[in-house]
Amino acid sequence: MNKKKRRIVIAIALVLCITMAAVAFYMFAGKEQGDIATTWTSNQLASYASENSGIKVPGYSHLYFPADSEKVPITLWNPEGNECLFRFTLTLEEENDILYTSDFIEPGMALEEITLNHSLSPGDYRLLIQIEPYTMDKTTPLNRANVTADLTVQ
What we know:
By secondary structure, the chain is α+β, with helices and mostly antiparallel strands. The protein contains one helix and ten strands, in the order αββββββββββ. The N and C termini lie far apart (69 Å). The model is unreliable at 42-51 (pLDDT under 50).
């Protein structure tokens, strides 16, 4: 292969490597291990604890978790239209046992499965869901909402 063709092949290979590195960086940079929020619209879940013109807060009445599993299905969502971030903390009310604390969730986004700090034994519990709104720059906490729900672990 002559010198000119070799340079072209090397240049193409270099461009491909840079492109692949940029794509990998874009896809994985800044993402932490853990729960991932997905896009969520309010018509998928229409239960609000607060219907006033302020911050919209989701309501929960009865939840079901699998026994002896740290991964549990639950929709922790920040309704679209809110102008704040949400952070959720789940606590067993009777035991003051923190089961989970989320990262910040943007408006219109939701977690649909979370990883608890520990699994739960079968039984009925009272779950306290603390919803902490923050300004979009994550620096200032706003009013907190506490929502309680019945939790059945089976």
